[in-house]
């Protein structure tokens, strides 16, 4: 049966436009997939921790060499990655803060973009050292913006650092099918906001109706992969060397 991962990242509750829009999408998706299941993750009201030095050291240690403390440091990350891998469709509500994403959603990205789980690294492959591991997913990013014109060709397009960031990071782990649906003009209000919200709602209804799950074997590429020796060597280096986090 199809499975949907629903993420909200706005700190606001009832006044959040993204929460209302993602809720509408989920309701419509469930109507068209009555046997489907949904996992809900609210990282706006329940913020995720940012990665720490202990987290980074654990992530770059081969699984069979991790201490109990390292395993604990990655426990939430593993839970979030498992949610992602089990989903056929992901819908994420993401408000537009200061031309980018809120720190809470960046914390989510840092928890799920992890070597050996969502991507592989081969230092011997100079042309293409990274291999994505998250396959067969479709993602809808629901964005709310205070002003307008941030879309392609718009007057504010050059200031839109959220859309390209999302496309880059999710493509990096293998989520190539990413639709961005935006509601704009919150700061202007009135008809401009109402029309933008209605347009976003119609597009989300269309996506909820048309979108079909594409299952894939997410773990096929990781079976014979091993952590590069350079990572193990770095664990004995001074702590400031461990600052690299892909």
From TrEMBL:
It catalyses: 2 a quinone + NADH + H(+) = 2 a 1,4-benzosemiquinone + NAD(+); N,N-dimethyl-1,4-phenylenediamine + anthranilate + 2 NAD(+) = 2-(4-dimethylaminophenyl)diazenylbenzoate + 2 NADH + 2 H(+). Signal peptide: none annotated. Gene3D superfamilies: 3.40.50.360. Keywords: Flavoprotein, FMN, NAD, Oxidoreductase. Homodimer. Belongs to the azoreductase type 1 family. This is FMN dependent NADH:quinone oxidoreductase. It comes from Gimesia chilikensis. The lineage of its organism: Bacteria, Pseudomonadati, Planctomycetota, Planctomycetia, Planctomycetales. The gene is azoR1.
